[in-house]
TrEMBL record:
Gene3D superfamilies: Electron Transport, Fmn-binding Protein, Chain A. InterPro entries: Pyridox_Oxase-rel, Split_barrel_FMN-bd. It comes from the Bacteria. It comes from Anaerosacchariphilus hominis. This is Pyridoxamine 5'-phosphate oxidase family protein. Pfam families: Pyridox_ox_2 (PF12900).
Length: 157
């Protein structure tokens, strides 16, 4: 990372950024060019290991690519704010972001509902009942995060 002064390596601080984000973009191997999609996600931490949960239909390009190569790069960002330096007539953007790598696995039928509950908790603080009929026609995936780093720019100077 070029700007080491903005780098965040503390696990807990990175997790706090992830909790603020509402979209995770994952890039998959698709030959000549990566294939990237924005996804809703849920975060779970077990014994110091972070996992991200995603859902999808039962078929599609994303699933085909992940079945061929389950290695992904992910990115999420939040806290965007315009920073204006009137005295020097310039501007920049404030932000927080996380970039990392992981491997994705497809959850078996008996674990899909738990994965969806983790995903739903990211967007709704309390557990709530939701229709479980669509679960059988939903793919639920879990990414094991292999490495990640955070970055922040929120200072004004």
């Amino acid at each position: 990372m070029r700007r080491k002064d903005r780098e965040i390596t503390d696990f807990n601080e990175i997790i706090e950024i992830i909790k603020k984000c509402d979209v995770c973009r994952i890039a998959m191997n698709d030959g000549d060019f990566p294939y990237m999609v924005p996804l809703n996600f849920g975060l779970d931490i077990q014994d110091g290991q972070a996992y991200l949960y995603f859902h999808a239909a039962l078929e599609g390009k994303k699933l085909d690519l992940l079945k061929k190569d389950n290695r992904v790069t992910f990115e999420m960002d939040c806290g965007h704010n315009f920073i204006l330096y009137e005295e020097r007539m310039s501007c920049t953007m404030g932000y927080e972001s996380v970039i990392g790598h992981g491997t994705v696995e497809f959850l078996p039928e008996e674990e899909k509902l738990d994965g969806l509950k983790i995903l739903m908790r990211h967007y709704h603080a309390e557990d709530f009942k939701f229709n479980t009929k669509p679960v059988k026609v939903t793919t639920v995936m879990r990414m094991t995060i292999l490495d990640m780093t955070g970055k922040r720019r929120n200072n004004i100077h």
